[in-house]
Write a structure and sequence with these properties.
- With 275 residues, the protein is mostly beta strands.
- The protein is globular.
- It has a single domain, classed as Jelly Rolls.
- The protein has two helices and 19 strands.
- Helix content is 8%, strand content 41%.
Amino acid sequence: MNKTLAALLLTATAFTACKVTTRSGAEKHLYVQKEGRERKAWKLVWKDDFNGPVLDTSKWTRIPPGKSDWNKHMSTSDACYRMENGLLYLRGIVNPDTSADKRPFITGGIWSKGKFAFQYGRIEIRAKLECAHGAWPAMWMLAEQNKYGAYPKNGEIDIMEHLNYDSIIYQTTHSYYTLNLKQTNNPPHYGTARLDPLAFNTFGISWYPDKIVFQLNGRDTFTYPRLKNADPSQWPYDQPFFLLIDQQLGGNWVGKINPADLPVQMVVDWVKVYQ
């Protein structure tokens, strides 16, 4: 492709994106869907197909370890990451070197915090999950900005969570309303969907100002609506959220890790966001 044609195509893509989204933030990384677009056709505004030799650090950061169930085994070690043939491998493994890091297991995960976040639109992630006792792969979203206060007041959107050898995924919303006020059934805050975890599947949501529609392989599976007369904490989903994709291990929900089942990995093909 000649340079002139490439420049024209890049300009056209940028112009299309500008028509559907407003970008702000220090690095123009906050993509807020323009008002009134929610019932119109989706347009691609951001993607990663993992075709490069290394992770694109303009879009993603390796998730560092923490103290919660979900991130207590997270690691930035190269042993937990691989890029090959247009696929990203996020691995959960027995720690090969406990002299430097005493944790028995380490896992890989990426997030777009500080680099990309969006408000309203559609996200699709094509990936294949592997199974193991203690495996907990997840694709989820957290608020980029502190609009309402400390967690869980800004909410959480779990696009997909898979446990052990299950043939279902969980798709969930968490917030102050569901966790602190215990309003888990008004409306129901989660659903499940059946899948073949060993095949490639496309996980996603379509996120509107008045509802979040969870999807699997293009099919609607569960809807979390915004209620008109509920406590305001029921809907913190009116702000940009960033993405997390991680191969978690262990914890109170998933149970004990069986080291004989490791390594286990989530294989990610691509991520696409539309507005």
